[in-house]
Design a protein that fits this description.
Distance between the termini: 41 Å
Largest sheet: none
Structural class: mainly alpha
CATH class: Mainly Alpha
Radius of gyration: 18 Å
């Protein structure tokens, strides 16, 4: 006999979106721990990899539910884009950590730690904003988080450009190539976080 869920599907969508946002924060925290305390690297990378898999699972659940649902809490295109954008943030964090492992780089510098902190702050804004999707009364304050995420993305752009300037002063071309890929992955994580904010803003403006 098929198991019948009594939880409305709209609530499940919100639960999964919030789970994806929480996983973003955990992954960003794991990256910050990695770059701030450059010890036990394989174990810390393994934790990030597990969190990346967890993010994939949440995304798959959201997309599967979209295919099964006739009614969604807001535009299904926005739900799909939100799920993929949150997943992309985690994927780019994982990519940055993967490059650090693959290239066997030395201890991360201040720019890497700065970018990791910005990623974490952006993820925390997403996790604070996500519950406000549940009620129309929360949509206006949702925009405040979007503004802050956009500010953080601009800050990340500045840190990224400064990091490249400093990097190209290096004479070791191998290190330039390695760290440039790491910087690009971290900056891309902040870009995808801004994509999340753009979806939030669109939902708020359409439904407020």
């Amino acid at each position: 006999m098929a198991k019948i869920s009594i939880m409305p599907r709209e609530e499940k969508f919100f639960d999964l979106i919030e789970a994806g946002a929480a996983n973003m924060v955990r992954t960003a925290e794991a990256l910050k721990e990695l770059v701030n305390d450059w010890r036990d690297i394989p174990e810390k990378f393994h934790k990030i990899t597990e969190l990346e898999h967890a993010g994939d699972s949440v995304t798959h659940q959201i997309i599967a539910m979209l295919h099964r649902s006739f009614v969604t809490p807001f535009d299904r295109e926005d739900i799909a884009l939100l799920a993929h954008s949150m997943d992309d943030v985690v994927d780019f964090i994982h990519s940055a950590a993967d490059y650090m492992m693959l290239y066997k780089v030395g201890k991360p510098n201040d720019r890497v730690r700065e970018l990791a902190e910005i990623i974490l702050l952006g993820a925390k804004e997403v996790v604070a904003a996500a519950p406000k999707l549940r009620k129309k009364s929360g949509l206006k304050s949702l925009l405040e988080h979007c503004i802050e995420i956009n500010r953080l993305e601009n800050q990340a752009d500045q840190a990224y450009r400064a990091a490249l300037v400093e990097l190209f002063e290096e004479h070791n071309i191998a290190d330039v190539i390695k760290w440039r890929e790491i910087y690009e992955s971290m900056e891309s994580a902040t870009d995808r976080c801004e994509d999340v904010a753009n979806v939030f803003e669109g939902v708020a403006l359409k439904n407020a």
